[in-house]
From TrEMBL:
This is GNAT family N-acetyltransferase. Gene3D superfamilies: 3.40.630.30. The lineage of its organism: Bacteria, Pseudomonadati, Bacteroidota, Flavobacteriia, Flavobacteriales. It comes from the Bacteria. Residues 9-174 form the N-acetyltransferase domain. It holds the Pfam family Acetyltransf_3.
Amino acid sequence: MITLTGDTIYLRALEPEDLEFVYAIENDENIWEVSNTQTPYSRFLIRQYLENAQQDIYEAKQLRLAICRSGSFEAIGLIDLFDFDPRNQRAGIGIVIKNNENRNQGMGKEALGLLIDYAFRQLQLHQLYANISQENAASIKLFTTFGFRCIGVKKDWMRSQHQFTDEGMYQLIHQS
């Protein structure tokens, strides 16, 4: 079981008790743009996902962790490594903090720092990438703080509220 600890938060593996939290995130249409979700998920499907969440990243090609405040089991967000490619030593990375009142307090930054460090030190990855809407200034600021650079823009990539928006591909290459 993975637990990564920071100053004010820690990252932990998902548990069956996280069903309602994951259900709420996966079915929040306001987050669908960020997570590239297009349809709601049932509790049944999420329960199945949580039952298999103990799979090794090498099997699942994904690692999803709950972001929790220190001293609390309750999740405030999720952070993921996805499209894990051990041969080419890379993965995508994404983060979501569920409620507005928990955003802009440094917890997302701390969580991202912990997972970047884990990806480079423990998983021996060479690079991470993130796909970020060019309208998501907060995420762009967060990722560029860690050295992610925009390596390209996908024009009219995402449809949102009857209009198309651009999506940037941000990359961080580990300097050993």
